[in-house]
């Protein structure tokens, strides 16, 4: 049980803090960057819930995700050690499986993509696209921590962030399904009409954007 009697402590004013195992480190430690970005991801998901006008079932999924993200942050902040006296909270495969199940459920009724899509549409979709990009940043920060700290990091926490960005992409499309996705039109193909709305189903790939747009970005 968490019991916060006072919010400010002054203990971090020297630029140092403690991890979940009470070991001391700098506030510029890559672990801190990772779980700070997870915290920001959680805040953006909360904004989508509060302002997005989303369906009740989607709100329930996202509320579950917000709780999961506290678990992810707790995991990233506590180094993995063999045979701990008090086993800490860890992200397990079931967390990832649950995300993949939601991805499959909400993607099943969406039109197959034939292009990348523009972030936007309904307020809910726009907020979810912002949350998706922040989750991607959190994943990159977590991988940076893995590179620095190696086996003391739980890779399933990083995998969770990857699948979460996929889910947020799918839920953004789900929020736009009534009006359709607004497709990216490459520069050489754009005329006076700058956007194309997609309600079609084609044979091309479905949810590649959440991965490919990240790989294409420097």
From TrEMBL:
<feature type="compositionally biased region" description="Low complexity">
    <location>
        <begin position="193"/>
        <end position="210"/>
    </location>
</feature>
<keyword id="KW-0963">Cytoplasm</keyword>
<comment type="similarity">
    <text>Belongs to the Cob(I)alamin adenosyltransferase family.</text>
</comment>
<dbReference type="GO" id="GO:0005524">
    <property type="term" value="F:ATP binding"/>
</dbReference>
<keyword id="KW-0547">Nucleotide-binding</keyword>
<keyword id="KW-0067">ATP-binding</keyword>
<dbReference type="InterPro" id="IPR036451">
    <property type="entry name" value="CblAdoTrfase-like_sf"/>
</dbReference>
<comment type="pathway">
    <text>Cofactor biosynthesis; adenosylcobalamin biosynthesis; adenosylcobalamin from cob(II)yrinate a,c-diamide: step 2/7.</text>
</comment>
<dbReference type="GO" id="GO:0005737">
    <property type="term" value="C:cytoplasm"/>
</dbReference>
<feature type="domain" description="Cobalamin adenosyltransferase-like">
    <location>
        <begin position="7"/>
        <end position="174"/>
    </location>
</feature>
<dbReference type="Pfam" id="PF01923">
    <property type="entry name" value="Cob_adeno_trans"/>
</dbReference>
<protein>
    <recommendedName>
        <fullName>Corrinoid adenosyltransferase</fullName>
        <ecNumber>2.5.1.17</ecNumber>
    </recommendedName>
</protein>
<keyword id="KW-0627">Porphyrin biosynthesis</keyword>
<dbReference type="InterPro" id="IPR029499">
    <property type="entry name" value="PduO-typ"/>
</dbReference>
<keyword id="KW-0169">Cobalamin biosynthesis</keyword>
<feature type="region of interest" description="Disordered">
    <location>
        <begin position="183"/>
        <end position="218"/>
    </location>
</feature>
<dbReference type="GO" id="GO:0008817">
    <property type="term" value="F:corrinoid adenosyltransferase activity"/>
</dbReference>
<dbReference type="GO" id="GO:0006779">
    <property type="term" value="P:porphyrin-containing compound biosynthetic process"/>
</dbReference>
<dbReference type="GO" id="GO:0009236">
    <property type="term" value="P:cobalamin biosynthetic process"/>
</dbReference>
<keyword id="KW-0808">Transferase</keyword>
<dbReference type="InterPro" id="IPR016030">
    <property type="entry name" value="CblAdoTrfase-like"/>
</dbReference>
């Amino acid at each position: 049980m968490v019991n916060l009697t006072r919010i400010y402590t002054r203990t971090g004013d020297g630029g140092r803090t403690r991890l979940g195992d009470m070991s001391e480190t700098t506030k510029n430690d890559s672990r801190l960057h990772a779980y700070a970005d997870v915290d920001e991801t959680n805040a953006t998901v909360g904004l989508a819930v509060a302002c997005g006008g989303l369906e009740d079932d989607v709100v329930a999924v996202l509320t579950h995700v917000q709780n999961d993200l506290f678990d992810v942050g707790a995991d990233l902040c506590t180094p993995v050690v063999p045979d701990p006296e008090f086993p800490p909270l860890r992200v397990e495969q079931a967390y990832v499986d649950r995300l993949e199940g939601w991805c499959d459920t909400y993607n099943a009724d969406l039109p197959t993509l034939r292009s990348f899509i523009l972030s936007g549409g309904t307020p809910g979709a726009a907020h979810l696209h912002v949350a998706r990009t922040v989750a991607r940043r959190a994943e990159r920060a977590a991988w940076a921590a893995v590179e620095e700290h190696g086996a003391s990091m739980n890779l399933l926490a990083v995998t969770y962030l990857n699948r979460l960005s996929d889910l947020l992409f799918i839920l953004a499309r789900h929020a736009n399904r009534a009006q359709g996705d607004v497709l990216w039109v490459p520069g050489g193909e754009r005329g006076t009409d700058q956007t194309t709305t997609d309600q079609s189903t084609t044979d091309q790939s479905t949810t590649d954007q959440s991965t490919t747009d990240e790989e294409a970005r420097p």
